[in-house]
Design goal:
369 residues; three-stranded mixed sheet; Phage tail protein beta-alpha-beta fold; single chain; 14% helix; mainly beta; 13-stranded mixed sheet
């Protein structure tokens, strides 16, 4: 894992130039689907690492497109002398330094994500805050950064959604969670995932379904630390979505003993009305409530095989060649369990003794373990 710093003091977010980093004794690099990735680098205090990787600088390595941000340095005494540890997280966490603002004529309300798929709404949220914000917030623009998204699921008659006033990173995740979407950063390159030779792209994605070509098997020794849980507890097929002034019912095709019900509080959709909403307003509120109920039922499925790590000795498939973080892969477990799981993270560790790497798999709908 050859790590390098990208960017220059003159253009810290123009990540087109790189400098290899030396003096590393050990390092860990973990990429994740939706949760922030992170890294840790250690070396001798006299190695020059602190000067090479100042706080706020950006790093990557030769086997990935992802970028991470140096966040802190720590120097501590060890048996072999003073050691420096440098840690940080994936680039998209810089969105924690931006706020969600209203985009309507009322400045004291939440942000309205216009009708569309959650992927498109997440894209619009970022674009309107860090790429082309209103003139009065031009200082929020992050130079040499772009935003992209995979199409993902779309909905006929999709409704707008309110994103609460919060950190922009939290607002983004509130939209990604709806359709189990992920986010990653991509270094400047002319490629399918980032067509810009200058900009680093924050990419909203849903992975690629590779379950037909990539399959990890317990019987071939691919899996370890597997968790099995047979449960219908999460399964729901009937929902009542209620607010302050109205409610809707969203029902599947199950009745009698097979019906499994849930109650969803959607008072955020109509709680701001002091008086009974007009018929037009009521229709919009009910449409949004129906959408929320459908999303909840779609995510509420029974589970069996819920988590696994792939053995470090597995050599049948290569990361970044055969599959990537966020992709869907086939899994053959014990007890006749076969399923499709998502690659939620990929970890690489290295030290003077060598290196190891492995993915972690989770059931669909769970972005992290």
């Amino acid at each position: 894992m050859d790590i390098f710093r990208v960017g220059t003091p003159a253009n810290p977010t123009m990540l087109t130039e790189g400098v290899m980093i030396s003096g590393i004794d050990s390092a860990t690099w973990v990429e994740r689907y939706r949760e922030p990735g992170d890294f840790s680098i250690t070396g001798d205090v006299g190695s020059g690492l602190r000067e090479s990787l100042p706080e706020g600088s950006f790093i990557s390595h030769v086997d990935t497109e992802e970028v991470m941000v140096v966040e802190s340095h720590e120097i501590k005494d060890t048996e072999s002398g003073k050691e420096i540890q440098i840690v940080g997280r994936s680039l998209e966490t810089i969105l924690e330094q931006r706020l969600v603002y209203a985009n309507t004529i009322w400045s004291n309300v939440d942000y309205l994500a216009w009708p569309g798929s959650p992927a498109r709404q997440a894209y619009d949220l970022l674009y309107s805050h860090i790429i082309v914000p209103p003139v009065e917030r031009a200082g929020d623009i992050i130079p040499y950064l772009s935003v992209g998204y995979d199409v993902g699921p779309t909905y006929v008659g999709a409704e707008g959604r309110w994103v609460k006033r919060d950190l922009l990173y939290n607002g983004l995740n509130s939209l990604l969670e709806i359709d189990d979407l992920g986010v990653r950063s991509i270094r400047p390159a002319i490629s399918m995932t980032n067509p810009s030779p200058w900009d680093t792209r924050i990419q909203i994605h849903s992975g690629v379904d590779r379950s037909a070509s990539v399959s990890f098997s317990h019987y071939l020794g691919d899996l370890e630390e597997v968790t099995y849980l047979w449960s219908k507890i999460p399964e729901k097929n009937f929902a009542v979505v209620f607010g302050r002034w109205t409610q809707v019912t969203v029902a599947g095709d199950k009745t009698g003993y097979s019906r499994r019900s849930t109650l969803i509080d959607a008072s955020d959709l109509d709680g701001g009305y002091e008086n009974q909403p007009s018929p037009t307003e009521l229709a919009d509120i009910q449409a949004a409530m129906t959408l929320r109920g459908e999303e909840t039922l779609r995510a509420s499925k029974p589970i069996a095989l819920v988590g696994a790590k792939v053995s470090k000795e597995q050599t049948s498939y290569r990361f970044k060649k055969d599959y990537d973080v966020g992709d869907l892969v086939g899994v053959q477990g014990e007890y006749n369990e076969e399923t499709v799981m998502r690659v939620s993270e990929y970890a690489i560790t290295m030290d003077k003794e060598g290196s190891s790497e492995y993915p972690t798999l989770v059931t669909l709908g769970e972005a992290s373990v």
